[in-house]
Amino acid sequence: MASSEIDALTQALARLPGLGPxxxxxxxxxxxxxxxxxxxxxxRALEAVSTTLSTCSTCGxxxxxxxxxxxxxxxxxxxxxxxxxxxxxxxxxxRSRLFPGRFHVLGGRLSALEGxxxxxxxxxxxxxxxxxxxxxxxxxxxxxxxxxQTTAHYLADRIGRLxxxxxxxxxxxxxxxxxxxxxxxxxxxxxxxxxxxxS
Amino acid sequence: MASSEIDALTQALARLPGLGPxxxxxxxxxxxxxxxxxxxxxxRALEAVSTTLSTCSTCGxxxxxxxxxxxxxxxxxxxxxxxxxxxxxxxxxxRSRLFPGRFHVLGGRLSALEGxxxxxxxxxxxxxxxxxxxxxxxxxxxxxxxxxQTTAHYLADRIGRLxxxxxxxxxxxxxxxxxxxxxxxxxxxxxxxxxxxxS
Lengths: 199, 199
Description:
The structure is a homodimer.
Chain A: H1 4-14, H2 21-33, H3 35-52, E1 54-55, E2 62-63, H4 69-72, E3 77-84, H5 87-95, E4 101-105, H6 123-131, E5 137-140, H7 146-159, E6 165-168, H8 184-192, E7 195-196
Parallel strand pairs in A: 3-4, 3-5, 5-6
Antiparallel strand pairs in A: 1-2, 6-7
């Protein structure tokens, strides 16, 4: 039907989360019809991100600079550190604009099933960040899933020995909920009602 | 939150049909995490399409060559011509691999509401293609909408003067359709076009 170039584009788009083969075809048709207003801007945006993309060596955020915009922002409160599982969680929390501090991305969660152990996550770098001093409060913002809470317990155990106040998101989170899917109101509630971790 | 490059990419993706702001953010995160397997292939595919994209001057299909792959294919039956409203319709019909002939894309449908007149569609070029000879049958494959059928009536009037056989897609029950769930218009069409049962 279509040329191999168009097929390749359809397949590349179909692999994005949220797009299947049918919606990828619709997207390709849209791009081809709206060459100046859709295809070219998307191409330029991808090029810009592709050439500048990097992972923040401090917090693990993905951004087009290192350190990332959040770590480099002097208006951020360096005394508060929010620990999240994934970059998507960081973005979700940051969109709510309620957390004035900085972040730390673990890169996953402890999981016996998937064989994810503490050394597979950015936990040692987190401990080092805390040992360097300057952080007064660590907010654990794991997903309200079994594995997320297991990770939070493990972190509480490790961080509990350090001289920082340890809090976690209030359990206004619905059981089984994932940060990236929650509305900002729920996130705001959970952040505002964060509590000290009982040791 | 994110840099302006990432924002621009998110916005460019969010404008695709089938993607909204949330799914665009997920797609961007996916692209940034899977740089080698997702971002780079998508970028290359877009570049390839962007540099070679053209509209077929014969049939109106969008492809990376002119004439398009269908018009240039010698195995296609040039005596059969299927007229469709949009390129998306051409692709949908061609995927079924049931039509052995070539296509003609009108680029829309007659619409009093949207002010689309016959001269806004590729009707004159269709008539010229037919007058050049070689086409025995024209299949009108407009959508089964009011505007699609208005367009089909108009085309039937114009083409009726030429020495070609004029047919249109059958209207009736869709495969898998249940009477109880079908609209009265479809049922009326199916009843009116009822055929003798082959014994």
